[in-house]
Amino acid sequence: MSYRRDSTIWKPYDRFEKLMGQEKTEEFWTEKQINEKLSKKSKLAVQFVSHCETHSLREQFIKKLDKYIDITTFGDCGNKTTDMKEQDILDQYYFYFAFENAVCKDYITEKFWRLKHLIVPVVLKRSILKGIIEDEYFIAADDFSTPEALANKLSEISENTTEYKKYLNWAFKYKKSPSNDNREFCKLCKIAVKKEKHQIPDIYQWWENESQCQFNFFNFSLKSLMAFS
Q1: Using one digit for the tens of pLDDT, what is the confidence trace for 3-39?
Q2: Does 184 fall in a domain?
Q3: Which end is more exposed in the chain, N or C (fewer Cβ atoms within 10 Å of the end residue's Cβ)?
């Protein structure tokens, strides 16, 4: 059981659950609630970071971006402290930097799922989310040739309410709360009861090599290296 989709049992950190039309009011966002959330936003971007040196080198990318836009950083690696609740912090911002500490196959942690607070996540690599999350609900850094181009796009979107709201359209299709689906544990029980055997000949090969992790992603995987010279 892991976040990898080719695991015997796939257990993501969270997932979207479709609205079926019979949900309780507290399970979905209304147009009024979305507009109220938007009215609270006045700052561009925020991140919560506890690992200051990462395999993906996300910290170097943020350093470049910070030359062009204001990025607020909370956590062990940040310059901000607060007694505010996370929800209240996120409400103030348009974008959340959901840069993972490693760029690996299917690796999508709780960072990304803060989008359920009606904030648009920015990820490092679009293809990591392919087949899991629709493209139109997030922004990917590797779509842009330079950090400056990404920064300009974020500023542009934040100033256009109509454009920004397009990234929130998931709220009309999916529940707003974290998934409480325990299907993975049901599958685990079935495997145990049936005494099914699932064997991986070389667990190291499967987990380490087939995870397709890209170290130093910042330096080597963006479209233009000129920005980092």
Answers
A1: 887 878 777 888 888 888 776 667 888 999 999 999 9
A2: no
A3: C
Which domain covers residue 92, as residue numbers? 25-177+215-228
Q: Is residue 98 part of a domain?
A: yes
Place of tokens 């699932």: 198
For the chain, helix (H) and strand (E) counts, in that order, are 8, 5
Q: How far apart are CA 25 and CA 104, in angstroms?
A: 37
The CATH number of whichever domain residue 48 belongs to comes to 3.40.50.11660
The answer to whether 10 touches 184, Cβ cutoff 8 Å, is yes
Taking only the tens place, the pLDDT of each residue in 62-92 is 999 999 999 999 988 877 777 789 999 999 9
User: What percentage of the chain exceeds 70 in pLDDT?
Assistant: 91
Q: Give dist(CA 92, CA 170) in Å, integer.
A: 20
Asked whether residue 222 carries a pLDDT value surpassing 60, the answer given is: no
**In this predicted structure, what is the pLDDT of residue 203?**
80
Q: Which of helix, strand or coil describes residue 206?
A: helix
In a domain, 62, yes or no: yes
Q: How many domains does the chain have?
A: 1
* Three-state SS annotation for 153-189: HHHHHHCCHHHHHHCCHHHHCECCCCCCCCHHHHHHH
Q: Is residue 36 part of a domain?
A: yes
